[in-house]
Amino acid sequence: MDINKLIGQIDELTDKMIQSHEAIYREVSLHLIEIKDIYSEYITIIPRLREIGLDIYESELLRQLQELVETIESKDIIGLYDCLAYEVRVTLCDYRRITEIMGR
Known about the structure:
The protein is an all-alpha fold. The protein has helices at residues 3-51, 58-74, 77-102. Helix 1 (3-51) packs antiparallel against helix 2 (58-74) and helix 1 packs parallel to helix 3 (77-102). The radius of gyration is 19 Å and the shape is rod-shaped.
């Protein structure tokens, strides 16, 4: 294989990777307001949830939001994936279950 051709192909691949990541950051940023709004709703009911014995802390939700913002700003694609898949998604699913039980 021609080394110049290979270098050109690698350049194309890395450009595509950057464009793909940029699109992901833009899309996540569009959802950030919704995520913040839902977290805010969740935080407002934490005192009632703690009264019935659920061990949920406002500081943990705030930490997750801060981490999400930081991974977007730093363009840390692995950190963003971890934050979305293992923290934000789980928190949103938990909140959905709680609101279903509460009849909200």
